[in-house]
Specification:
This protein is mainly alpha-helical. It has six helices and two strands, in the order E-E-H-H-H-H-H-H.
């Protein structure tokens, strides 16, 4: 099992798919990494030798922000917005949708399970 950027990537999947298990690397970035190193897209992780895995690891470390660093950057950006008390920060603070979606109906993912209001009879 190959370990890249602190993540055990699955050995029986294709290289492109396996790299997407790393937070911060999607299909497009995975293809660019494979093209840069000359690795065929159809090859599986178990078919890679140690040298190729080392090259992938070094490329990701040098050129991409992934896993813990990326999560930290994202959370710091959200914390900065909340400290500024700008509109987006207030929406984050209240746990409501940030990007202008309607909240009269829907928005259950952000707002949580619907709470019934007691005493709403005729």
């Amino acid at each position: 099992m190959a370990r890249i950027a602190g993540v055990n990537i699955p050995t029986n999947k294709r290289v492109i798919v396996a790299l997407t298990y790393i937070h911060g690397i999607g299909p497009t970035t995975a293809k660019k990494i494979a093209d840069k190193l000359g690795i065929d897209h159809t090859r599986r992780v178990q078919d890679l030798n140690d040298q190729e895995i080392l090259q992938i690891r070094e490329t990701i470390d040098a050129d991409h922000t992934v896993e813990g660093d990326l999560r930290r950057d994202t959370s710091m950006n959200i914390k900065r917005l909340m400290d500024l008390a700008c509109y987006r920060g207030l929406r984050h603070r209240k746990g409501l949708p940030v990007r202008g979606q309607r909240t009269h109906t829907n928005a259950r993912t952000r707002k949580g399970k619907a709470k019934p209001i007691a005493g709403k009879k005729k």
